[in-house]
UniProtKB/TrEMBL annotation:
Domain named Transposase IS4-like: residues: 4-119
GO process annotations (BP): DNA transposition
InterPro entries in alphabetical order: Transposase_11
Name recorded for this polypeptide: Transposase, IS4 family
Organism: Nitrobacter winogradskyi (strain ATCC 25391 / DSM 10237 / CIP 104748 / NCIMB 11846 / Nb-255)
One Pfam family hit: DDE_Tnp_1
A molecular function GO annotation: transposase activity
Record field: transmembrane: none
Amino acid sequence: MLADALGRPLRFIVTAGQVGDVTQAPALLEAQAGDAVLADKAYDSNALRALIAGMGAEAVIPSNRTRKIIIPHDAGLYKHRNRIERCFNRLKHFRRFATRYDRRTVHFTGFVHLAAALIWLP
């Protein structure tokens, strides 16, 4: 999921449970603009960092502990990453989202669109 600076959902892609999140990051960031991209250690890859640099943004991603050369990140800016977690928390208030009752991806995706629209309302 991609969220804005206020923690409101912008884009999301539903994948299978075993698919890594970093594989969907380029599709989520396509045609986006911003000063920084905040992500957790799961998104630490050279390809994603190059994509973010190509956008003209700063990659605020802590280095994975298996990385031989640690890449520093702005710890003060990284503290704002909790906004995506708060976005997921607001979506989980919808029981249908939290428990994933829908078997078909198209039905679940439709409900996520509805829930995301309700989150945007003041």
